[in-house]
Amino acid sequence: MMAADTALMQGVTAWWPYVMIIFAGWLATDIWRWLGVLAAGNLREDSEILIFVRSIATALVAGVISKLILYPSGALAETSVWLRVAAALCGFAAFMPPGRRCSPGCLLQKRFSSAAGCCWGDTGSR
């Protein structure tokens, strides 16, 4: 009986951090999503608060993209700066014409960076 209890406790101990991460991650994001849904019914699309929130979100995305281009990590750090900038410009050019849709921009950026890396043998010189 004692060995079974020990095995059960070891199993719970092994899985507890993952359960906590999933629960805390869900709780931290889902509450704000539901509050956003409830509040969105009362806001006009051209209200000052929504324009402010949209500008903050745009600035955050621009900051993340800039960080990925200028200070990459992992495999992206092995590519040259000109390749990262050119891929971002191609992605942006594909993003705009079809009505600001993310899919064409992401696909073209990925295809460009893959093709450029294969064709020109990007050596990672920065």
The proportion of residues forming helix, as a percent range, comes to over 70%
Spans of at least 5 consecutive residues whose pLDDT stays below 50 are: none
Total of helices: 4
Beta-sheet strand percentage? Answer: under 5%
Calculate the terminal CA-CA distance, rounded to whole Å. 63 Å
| Rg of Cα set | 23 Å
Shape: flat
Label the structural class: mainly alpha
Q: Total number of β-strand segments? A: 0
Task: Give the topology, please.
Layout: H1 2-40, H2 48-70, H3 81-95, H4 102-119
Helix pairs in contact: 3-4
Key features of this structure:
126 residues, mainly alpha, 75% helix, 0% strand
What do these coordinates show?
There is one protein chain. By secondary structure, the chain is mainly α. It contains 4 helices and no strands. α3 packs antiparallel against α4 (about 100-120). The longest helix is centred in the first third of the chain and has 39 residues, at about 1-40. The model has no long low-confidence stretch (mean pLDDT about 80).
